Structures are given as C-alpha cells and as structure tokens.
Amino acid sequence: MCGIVGAIAERNITAVLVEGLKRLEYRGYDSAGLALFNTEGALERRRRVGKVAELERALAGEPLAGRLGIAHTRWATHGAPSENNAHPHFSGNDLAVVHNGIIENHEALRERLKGLGYVFSSDTDTEVIVHLLDHKLQELGDLTTALKATVAELHGAYGLAVISAKQPDRLLAARSGSPLVIGLGHGENFLASDQLALRQVTDRFMYLEEGDIAEIRRDSVQVWDASGRPVQRETVQHREGAEAADKGEYRHFMLKEIHEQPSVVQRTLEGRLGQQQVLVDAFGPQAAELFAKVRNVQIVACGTSYHAGMVARYWLEELAGVPCQVEVASEFRYRKVVVQPDTLFVTISQSGETADTLAALRNAKALGYLASLAICNVGISSLVRESDLTLLTQAGPEIGVASTKAFTTQLVALMLLTLAVGRARGSLEGAVEAGLVEELRRLPARLGEALAMDRTVEKIAELFAEKHHTLFLGRGAQYPVAMEGALKLKEISYIHAEAYPAGELKHGPLALVDSDMPVVTVAPNNELLEKLKSNLQEVRARGGELVVFADREAGLDNGEGTHVVHVPHIADALAPILYTVPLQLLSYYVAVLKGTDVDQPRNLAKSVTVE
Ligand code: F6R
C-alpha cells in the first residue's frame, strides 16, 4: 500500500526522502512524489508515475533541495495512477499533504469545498484533506490547531504528513487506521509509515497510536492523543533488522526470504519449547487459564495468512480435539455470526495492519468471544495492541510482496497454539505433545534439507514457463498447502492457478485437464496417499502432465508425463510446513523464467491497509 516519509533537519533532506521511498517500494505502488520547502522559501514538488527510480530521474534533471519535506509512494484507490493523482497534494502554493488510507466522506467534503471556491486538480480523496486544512488554517491561523480541526471532520482511515510554507518550523502527522512512526535524530527528526524507511538515519522510534496528532520540530516532538490531551509516547530502540532491507547475495528478496526459513523458524521456536511441552506463557500470562476453557476456535485472516489458518483447522481438530472454523476477514466482518460459547477468536497476519482483519477483530469484541489472540509478525502493530493474547512470529521484515517466511512461521506458531490448547484442555496426550515438540526442534534442519531441492525445482519450473493454466491438488492439511502454492504462482508469474482438494477433481475440474494444463500435487506418505495416487491416475489417463512433490517412501517415481521430486521425510503433522518450500521455489523460478517483477508483482501491495 501507500508509503509516507517526512523529514525536518538542518541539512538538505532530499536524499533521505528518496532513500526512504525506496525502502518502502516493497509495499507496492504505482507513482511517487515529494514536496520540499526549498531554499527560496517556497514549496516545490516533483511527482512521477511508476517506480521511485522515475522520480529520482526527474530529480536528477531538475534538482530540489530543502530542509523540510514530505514524500509518498501511492497505490491507487481513488483515481487512476497519474501524475495529477500522485501525492503530495497542494492547496494553493503553500500547503502540502501526503495521505495513506481512504476518506469515506470525501464526496460530501469535495462539494462543500467547491462551494467555498476551491478548485480540485485530482480525482483523489486526499485532495479534500489539503483544501479543508487550508480552509481551517485561514480560520484559525495556526497549522497544528487547523490540523486538529480538520481530522475531526474526516471519516475513514488516514495516516497524514503535512507541511506549510507559512510555518516551516514543523512537520505535522496524524494517525487513524494507518500506521505512522516518528524517527528521532539529533537536531533532526523524521516520519514514516514504516520504520524500515528510516533505518538509514536513526534506530530510535516513537510509534503514534490511534487518533494521535504530532507536531515534529527539529529538536522536539509533541503528541496529542485522540481526546486532545498532550501525551508522551514511548521511545523504542531497534538495534537489529537494518540489514533486512538488503538483498545480500540473493537476486530477489523473495529468494532470500525463502532461504531464511530455517533460521526464522528456529527464532519462532526459541523460548517457547520446554523439555517435552510448549510453554503456554509464551501466549501471555492469562493464556493457560483461558486455553483450559476453550471449546471452539474461530480463525480469521486474509490471503496467505488465511491459508495458514486453514492448515491449523486440521491440527486443532485432529490433535487438540477442538472444533475450528476459518474464514476470510472480508467476509467475516460483514456477516452475522453465531458465536458458540467459549470460542477463542484468532487472527493471523504478517503485517498486523490488514484493514479487513483489524475490522473483523474490532467487530468480534462485541460478539462475546472468550478472548482474542493475534498471531502476528509485527510487535507494534494495531492487531497486536488490540488483542488480549499475542504470539509473535519471528520472521523479521518480509520485503517480497509474495509472503513466504511469514507463512511458515505462522504455521509454526499455529502448531504451538494447537499443542498449548490441547494440553490446557486435557485433550492431547503428553506423549503426542512430547513427540511433536521433538519434531519441531528438528524442523529447521528439515527445512534446510528441503531448500537443497532448489536446483531440481528450478529445472522443473521450465515445464510451466509457456503454460497459461495449472491445477494444484492436495488432500487433508495439504489442501491449504496446494491453495498457497496456487496463490504464489498466480501472484508472481501471472499464470492462472487453481487449487482443489484432490478428491474433488472428478466432480468438475477434471474436464480442464489436458497436455496444456500441468497438475502440481503434494504427496507426503500418510493415510491419504493411496487415495491421492488414484486421483493422479485420473489426471494421467487424460494426458495431464504431473509434477509431484512426494515423500521418498511414497512409492512414486518418474515416468512418462510424471515428474516426481522427493521431499525429505517428516512427521505427517509437520508436513504442511515442509511441503510449502518446494511450492514457493517453483513459483519463484517460474516467475524468473517469465521475467516478471518477482518482488513487486503488478497490482499488488504488501500491507493491505484499505478495504
Ligand atoms: C500473498 C500475501 C497476501 C497476504 C494478505 C494478508 O502472498 O502476502 O495474501 O497474506 O494480504 O496480509 P497480512 O498477513 O499482513 O494480514
């Protein structure tokens, strides 16, 4: 989604803003721009459609320098990607705003402002903010006071950064539904929608909370909360993670992140396993008491995180004996749900800022759930702050838009949840838990072995480069793994891919199978294997080409039209985690062969903070 960077300093901050935008590129965008209070005492801007590199080129041709400025990468919601719709938006020549989020009452405000004589030059909802702010500034005389009066009239979601040539001693920020963080320097301060954008200038951060307004000066920061009271927000220091924005030896962030999985899974397990059991306190001090009461689990998430939830349903019902429902957040939030007594409400999210998942959590609070638990990769996210219990995945920043290491660490966290809930309820045998704890300890090594299949999968990818459609099949907990494999392939290679439970094949999709439709399947050696083999025969009998990721003991080997890749053996319960890896590698190498933009696929954004 959109990204914001701002700075106020005694030096020229153009390079800081551009570097910040580059670090936000991974979030997805279609245009970029910046505005500076220049050395002549006026506001000046450059905006370009396309990548930040286009903006950089424009700045090389027509340089801009200044000590106060704001910058933005836009992901179009209202109005097509165009230079006019790119941020910053101006009112007159002396007021500039950048905005993340959506203003829901923009039409009514636009009509009112037109009536007051304002002329609009874009199709965006954002432009109403800057004109309304200008109107308030004329009435009230002070920029900070005017911003407070402006946000009081906005409905919807916003993260805002504001500068004015009339009061160039300050950079203003306002947050409601869209994250903002202040970066603290020495004699200079910064603002961004994600701390990663500022790691080159500081490691000290102050996170704004919902409803906060901040006045950022060179050597001070003043924050007011939603009720207008001055507040002190905590300063946190991030010493690690600056290297996350670097691809290192890898060609793409996605490949780097796939290869990080053994270490981030290890980190996600650290401090959470006892000798023979999961340490329930890892979920929070009240977790043991709450988990003992759990009679149902409702999981809500989007996209890849939803697929993790789908896997967890198999685990929670089979291992912990708890009924579990899983739903995509965009449906759940608008549905009238019937809540069973003692239901634990679980959200799963890499970013913790996904608008639909957050809204689902907020709605759930009024519905009488036992408690809410967030499985999330970002400790300071809204989802974590607003949930009763939390288990953080330790994947580190995920830059590739297509989620990889976040998914596998979510699965690890969900297995920990399954074991903790099963034990607390007395529905999981100690020996079963001890066995799985042992298997979890071995998981990082198994993932390392799975990554050694890299070259083999690269070769298999050639089968897909010229194809337009694929089917992914799986049974049991491998069905959501197939869904995740299909999602990865379509996201980054733009090949149409659909996932089916293998048993559904003959109920319809078999009609599609021919030699132009490769069928990918995951086949661990479990009690569903023989059933799956019959489904594979159905494909072969119709001339369909098969790619099978199979356990060595599964009795599946290469044959005409059948390409088998052997996956290291693993306990069946953990197989969904391991079998995800070759599917990630497959989509990666197909995309590389097709020459698509692997890390920033078209039309997609990393953290979906709008509905
Ligand atoms: C797919 C992908 C998305 C996200 C979805 C939810 O590769 O990354 O489907 O999983 O947008 O995002 P989070 O997990 O941040 O809530």
UniProtKB/TrEMBL annotation:
The keyword Ribosomal protein does not apply. One of its GO terms (biological process) is amino sugar biosynthetic process. Keywords: Aminotransferase, Cytoplasm, Glutamine amidotransferase, Repeat, Transferase. The active site is at 2 (nucleophile), 606 (for fru-6p isomerization activity). Its EC number is 2.6.1.16. Its main location: cytoplasm. It catalyses: D-fructose 6-phosphate + L-glutamine = D-glucosamine 6-phosphate + L-glutamate. Residues 2-219 form the Glutamine amidotransferase type-2 domain. Residues 287-427, 460-601 form the SIS domain. Gene3D superfamilies: Glucose-6-phosphate isomerase like protein, domain 1 (3.40.50.10490), Glutamine Phosphoribosylpyrophosphate, subunit 1, domain 1 (3.60.20.10). It is found in: Cytoplasm. One of its GO terms (cellular component) is cytosol. SUPFAM superfamilies: N-terminal nucleophile aminohydrolases (Ntn hydrolases), SIS domain. InterPro entries: GATase_2_dom, GFAT, GFAT_N, GlmS/AgaS_SIS, GlmS/FrlB_SIS, Ntn_hydrolases_N, SIS_dom, SIS_dom_sf. One of its GO terms (molecular function) is glutamine-fructose-6-phosphate transaminase (isomerizing) activity. It is an enzyme of class 2 (transferase). Homodimer. PANTHER family: GLUCOSAMINE--FRUCTOSE-6-PHOSPHATE AMINOTRANSFERASE, ISOMERIZING, GLUTAMINE--FRUCTOSE-6-PHOSPHATE TRANSAMINASE (ISOMERIZING). Catalyzes the first step in hexosamine metabolism, converting fructose-6P into glucosamine-6P using glutamine as a nitrogen source. This is Glutamine--fructose-6-phosphate aminotransferase [isomerizing]. It comes from Zestomonas carbonaria.
